Each structure stands twice: as C-alpha cells, then as structure tokens.
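Render this sequence as a predicted structure.
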Amino acid sequence: MQITQRPAPPGNFTLNRLGTIPDHISLHTTGNTKQSGINTVLNPSSGVSYHFIIGRDGSITQLVEIRNTAHSNGTTSDRNNDRWHGHSPLAEIRTRNINANRYTISIGFGDMTNSNPSPEHLRSAVWLINHIRNEVRNLYGINIPFTRERIIGHDEVTPRTRWFCPGIGFPWDELMVMLWDNDREKEWEGEEMTQEQFNKMFQAAISEWMANRGTLPPSDWAKAELEKAKELGISDGKRPRSFATREEVMAVVVRAGGRNML
C-alpha cells in the first residue's frame, strides 16, 4: 500500500518524544470526512494532529512522523484535570504519569459512519499497524504486541471526555482477529509447511486466540446479564468472551436450574 505524505505544521505536533518510546497505537474517529480531518491537522491554529488518517476507501495519509509526538489524545499530566489519563480503565495507561501522546502512535479513521469502519478501513488499518510495528522496531528496537492493552481506543485513554472515540460500535474483535491472522500468515509466508509445522502454527494460533480473548471486556449488550449471573452465583464473570469448556457449560446449566430439565 502507499502512504501519502502531508506534513502537519510545526505548532500542531511536538518534535521527538522527550525520551519516551512509543509502545501503544491509539485509534480515533476524525468525527467527519478524511479530508476534513486532514484540513484540521494542516490548520496551524488547530493545535491538533494524528500520525495517520485512513479514508473509507482505504487510502492512508501520514501527517506526523512516528518519531515525533502527535497532539491526538487531548491528554494532560495534571491529575486534577478530567483529561488526565489516570481515569483510563487500562492499568497500562492509568499508571503512567506522563502525557499519553508521548507514548502513543495515533490513527484517525475518516468517513466512518456511526463508528462502523468499512472493509477497506480495516484492511488498511491491519496493513498500517504492521507497518507501524516494523518502523518502531527499526527506530527503537521494540515490538508492539498485538493485544488490546497496546492497540487501544481514544476512549480508553480519556474515557471522561472522549467516550465516543472511535465509537462504542467499533468492531474491536474483528480488527484484532484480522491482525492475529495476518501476523500468523506473515510468520509462515513463503515456506512449504510440513504437517508438524502446520500443527505447531495451529496450536500457537489457538493459544494466542484464547489468551487474547481472555483479556477482552464484556460486550455492551451482555453487561447487564453478566452482572445478574454473578449476583446469582451462576458465573464468576471472568473471561466473558473466552470459549467455555464442557465442565464450565455443565456448571452454568446446573447452577441456572437446568437440573430440573434432566
């Protein structure tokens, strides 16, 4: 894929990262079209920027270099301010006492309808996140893991003021599965696999899938029922989106009164 370069004016980003290594990728909605987002970043008086913006057609524009700090999260290091990221639900973010812009690389989605990205949005996002990880590895010598603790939404950085970004309907599960699948394919790309290699790849993919599913929070539509199930002692509520074993299914059925159907 190609990346179009449209450098932001100096006042809309900060040179370098003041000694901080970027190890998170934050996703945003521009709130309008891709072009309007670009126009905002190129406006010297806006003070706002993203590293990249993706259009609904999948086109990618870069506005700030990865080695520099974009002004995308609207965060502060002041603990008394609602824009302080200490309110984040993610411990990885909450415990850091520096402005989140310094350790995040931002991707804005333009032309995103009701927080629903297009297939082209998602395909380009997968490619771009891989590109970012490669660039960070080259620049800083670290790998950004493909987990929901490191690939995050703006709403997880500043939930009090940006709860709507990138949107409550954003398809996080779909994006993460696409990233994991793409990562696994790249690992074996160009090789003629033996059965032993395939088995190893398959088991690793299942293990990674299970591990990452265990970190995902409950879906919005299921939160009320999950809390009720915990109150009734039907479930402990842990790993709400992981697969269930036979013993877990049987325990839930019996606790819910299924013994009357036996």
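Summary. Helices lie at 34-42, 91-94, 119-140, 154-157, 172-187, 195-213, 223-231, 246-255. The mean pLDDT is 86.
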